[in-house]
Amino acid sequence: MNAAALLTDGSVVTVRELGPGDVSALLELHRGLPVEDRYMRFFSTSPRQLEDFVERMISPDAPQHVVLGAFRENRLLGAASYVVVRETDFAEVALVVSHTEQAHGVGTLLLEHLASLARGRGVRRFTAEVLTINGRMLRVFTDLGLVTSIVPDGEVIYVELVLEPGDHYLDVVSERESRADVASLTHVLRPSSIAVIGAGRSPGSVGNAVLRNLIEGSFTGDLYAVNPHAKSVAGVDCYASVTELPEASELAVLCVPAKAVPAVAEECGRRGVRALVVISSGVDAEELLKAVRAHGMRLVGPNCLGVSTSAPAVRMNATFAADSTLPGGVGLVTQSGGIAIGVQEELRRLGLGLSSLVSTGDKLDISSNDLLMWWEHDQDTRIIALYLESFGNPRKFARIARRVAATKPVLAIRAATSEAGQRAAASHTASTATPSVTRDALFRQAGVIAVDSVPELTDAVMALSWQPLPSGRSVAVLSNAGGLGVLAADACVRQGLHMATLGEETRRALAELVPQTASLQNPVDTTAVVDEKTFARCLDIVGTDPAVDAVITVTVPTALGDPTGGVRNVNGKPVLAVRTGQTERLAGEVPCYAEPARAAAALARLAERADWLARPREFARLNRIDLDAANAVVANRPEGWLPPDDVVTLLTAFGLPVLGGTLTTTAEHAVAAQRAYDGPVALKAVADDLLHKSKGGGVELGVTDAAGVAEAFRAFQERFGDRLRGVFVQPMASGGRELLVGVVTDEKFGPLVVAGLGGVDTDLLDDRAAALAPLSTADADDLLHGFRTAGHVLADADEDAVREVLLRVAELAGALPEIVELDINPLVLSDTGCVVVDARVRVAPAPHTDPFLRRLRTT
Question: Packing angle between helix 777-785 and helix 799-815, nearest 10 degrees?
């Protein structure tokens, strides 16, 4: 293990396993501790015994003994160790932290990494002995977030930690990571001083543009320029190198040639710079990151537009954009500088601005995950906008985004949505798991509002900035132009909104205001003759109808007047306006769109957020799970499809309703199985490369006697020859609707659960819904009803039973990373339950991964 990570104060340390070359550093760490801080029980020995023990402990010949150390620029700050003391799953843990480094989170970080490493090596519990006088160390263990038992015994307290990382532990770790990230990003977004390195004299150079933007934006801190060929640039004194600066700037913006970037970064690190923004492209990423990590700096870029913040205390525009950032409440992070400029300009035109902008470029270090945590705590940011072309750690992103979206809207422009990245897959489930399906599932479950263009993004930001959320999806359209009103109604329906049925009282009140030729049904057409005041009164009447959750107004100017001035907020409900050809803000902060379709789409985004906020958040607690039995099936298996009897064992271990069956290898054995079931049976060939049994001629249904069984067995032998490994004999299932439930595991995103139309026609309609595990109960409901034919398939089914199958399949996929594909097809439904009739499972060795471990990118 070799990882960079953040401490509580935002400083960067390296966590790695110690080896024989670290003996002296470990001994020095111990000798510098006061007696009361020596928490590792074995350190109470004599110096010679201590030295011998340390050498044995970190010897490569001691695989059951692991020691991790936390380093800052090659100085050991603390060490954590475990030694296996009972069989292979129970270990004693010990911890020491330098007296001068305590209270910065060193011990907690080491324990998190040690626990993750131990879990990957089969350890399930830690035990520790802490002296009663060491209350601070006891708090380190008890505040870790893992299930803990504490047993006092005289001067010693025995602590036991269960290493299973449940939701509480992941929440606690995420909270610690958030605090540390915010502290480290202060150097990027709230710097007290900036040096522009490569500040050219030519107005056409990037460095010159960055420096001028900082000057013209009235940056509040100290500003320096580095250019060995100039005395000053744009009125700012120049220095020949970073080492000649009068002080170490907190932030450095690098605009030097690509080849020079790693060396300049190294120079910045040695000088004490805390963060870098690298504008240059074509940089040697490995060498740059090496310098950044060696000196504990944070990095934006390379190949980026820069960063800006409109906070009055900073006023920093360290970008080469043509215009400065308009102050506002939108936080924007984007991998594309062009998208950043486009969004910024669109928002500026509408009078909306940014709280901060970060162009991550190649995002070697700082990413959207970091910025989400920053904006979660930034009071100036009310809405968050993202443009992501790739995910570094999507599972961590989902957890962070879900937490942040609970308090602030998070929007994302979808990118790279083509199917070009789809990998070939053998199962029905895997063929569904295209990159866009997986990404959209992540966004939907995390509460991220997905859009497909910059105008869609700014349209949604307008609505979210100025209007409340609707309490439902029922919309009224009020127009002085009947045709445009109809278009607005059509657009609402396409967006999943509903046209409200206006009450009789509403229609009577409208009739008293508008001509007889007006239409009083929804959409309401007031006709072109109504004036501004009359239109406003109509809007009040429609908006107060209890059946109406939101109103879209559509107005056009005529020779008789322009009713647009009558558009206003009403009754605490969202009002969105349409005025053809114009996107603007009307009086009272009513967003106005250039066409009905854009208004309907923006209103749908409001409704989407309201729906997500109202969703239940709980995860079901499932019983009847035998994890040991399941692990016994998949452990140490070579890559490939499991035999059908092992599939039955695996699914049964997770409490799934499996029909069962018998794997037979001879005709006589198959006949005996049929007699044991005492009824009609299905025979399914188990043969090499036979994945879709029905299509490949590997299924015989409704066989009722011994002769039929023997004949079917011999037919399989003739058809498949040496490829035949056996025949699976099952009792025939009762008829019913058929569902497909499956899992495909992505290396980064984790398990994707799929549900849809099952049976032999599953590929013809390609009708499926998908969600990422783990599934909340609300996620399971969305999955259950998310495919087109769900209403038909579930018409007479026991939905509670089907929902439980989805939850159990998701639990199985999350608990067993060895499962890379799973197909249940069909799951036969009835009004009293459901049963798994056929299933296939493909496994592969799974290296231990921990997507939630606190660490920064190192390569």
Answer: 120
